Amino acid sequence: MGANIIGIGSYVPERILTNADLEKLVDTSDEWIVTRTGIKERRICPEDKAASDLGTEAARRAIADAGIEAGKIEMIICATITGDMVFPSTACIIQNNLGIENVPCFDISAACSGFIYGLEIARNLIDTGRYNKILVVAAECMSRVTDYTDRSTCVLLGDGSAAVVIERTEDRFGILDTYLGAAGKFGNLLYVPAGGSRMPATHRTVEEKMHFMKMEGSSLFRIAVVAMGEAVKKVLERNGFETKDVSLIIPHQANIRIIQGVARMLDVPMDRVFLNIEKYGNMSAASVGVALDEAVKAKKINKGNLLCMVSFGAGLTWAANIIRWGKDG
Ligand code: ACO
């Protein structure tokens, strides 16, 4: 039994924040941002919208692409670290928006690795035989936890969403395997200090900008290259594949230099690595999902191709999967 992706969709908000816009907010330059990160612009969620709105739109597109009624969905998993509220889950809000009744819905928190974690959870639940169709959504409003006075983080992040419908299949198509990793000991490299039970929001936490993301970029950079490269190697090796068997690698879009480092480590040419970082920056869990959708729409992926998605994020967490693409173009 397998878990095949039968529908895919993504959605990014219309508002574009360019490097020129950021030059007006902090001491930075288009030249620095492009050469150090590869990012030219990113999308920003409107004030009256939230992660669930972005996720709902991506989900509608994925369900339409699957050619099914929303009522056929049997579970909703939402990967997010910028959910609408502490509770209820963003997955439940998306369920209500979609008009789906009485199916299990929950969020997972694995930061940028969340979409690949979510796909793996869905694959294993399908494997139990209990579920036939699961909706996995990644929805992030990173702009809401970004300090636009901190040049070391604000140039990196953007908002967006992606979704897939996964269905049980008897064929050897779909998600074949996933390698998941985490290292809580590095949690202090990337976190939002306030707003949780350790440091509930107060006037002081807001004044001191503790509800914004804090990051140690250069330490993360080094760990990311090795963790992503190793994750790809492990998932390929244990399934008897080599990098030459992979048609397209879809990496997390955090920094073009991280992606190039991973490609070098794997000895994979950059023309087999999908990039859209310059348009969106880092959309956390949504990045690999939006990249997968754009690669499919650009016909860079054909039925039967072997793909590898790989990501890395706060936790720290990392994940790589292999997918035998089983959907007609
Ligand atoms: N514009 C101009 N200068 C800047 C900027 C900026 N936007 N940001 C930093 N600098 C300066 C620094 O102040 C420093 O100056 P100094 O030498 O005078 O002190 C200099 O540039 C170099 O800084 P570094 O931090 O060493 O620069 P680096 O090459 O490492 O790039 C970056 C920084 C882009 C943050 C990089 O480290 C990176 O991408 N790290 C990984 C980020 C990541 O992957 N995060 C995880 C995912 S996010 C998630 O999970 C939600």
Q: Write the H/E string, N to C.
A: EEHHEHEHEHEHEEEHEHEHHHEE
By DSSP, the count of extended strands is: 13
CATH superfamily of the largest domain: Thiolase/Chalcone synthase
Give me the CATH fold name of the largest domain.
Peroxisomal Thiolase, Chain A, domain 1
Strand order of the largest sheet: 1-7-6-4-5
Beginning-to-end CA distance, first to last residue: 23 Å
Low-confidence stretches: none
Compute the number of helices.
11
Main sheet makeup: 5 strands, mixed
Q: Tell me the name of the CATH class of the largest domain.
A: Alpha Beta
The CATH architecture of the largest domain is 3-Layer(aba) Sandwich
Any overview of this molecule?
It is a single chain. The chain starts with a strand and ends in a 5-residue tail after the last strand. The model has no long low-confidence stretch (mean pLDDT 97). β4, α4 (90-98) and β5 (105-108) form a beta-alpha-beta unit. The chain has helices at residues 19-25, 30-37, 51-66, 90-98, 114-127, 151-154, 203-207, 217-237, 256-266, 277-280, 286-297, and strands at residues 2-11, 15-18, 41-44, 75-79, 105-108, 133-141, 159-169, 174-182, 190-191, 214-215, 248-251, 306-313, 317-324. α3 packs across α4 (90-98) and α8 (217-237) runs parallel beside α9. The chain folds into two domains: 2-174, 3-Layer(aba) Sandwich (Peroxisomal Thiolase, Chain A, domain 1); 176-324, Thiolase/Chalcone synthase (Peroxisomal Thiolase, Chain A, domain 1, 3-Layer(aba) Sandwich). The chain is α/β, with parallel strands linked by helices. The chain is globular and about 55 Å long. Strands 1-7-6-4-5 form a five-stranded mixed β-sheet, sandwiched between helices. A four-stranded mixed β-sheet has the order 8-13-12-11, with helices on both faces. The protein has a two-stranded antiparallel ribbon with strand order 2-3. Acetyl coenzyme *A (ACO) is lined by residues 28, 32-33, 36-37, 111-112, 151-152, 155, 190, 215, 217-218, 220-221, 224, 254-255, 258, 282, 284, 313-314.
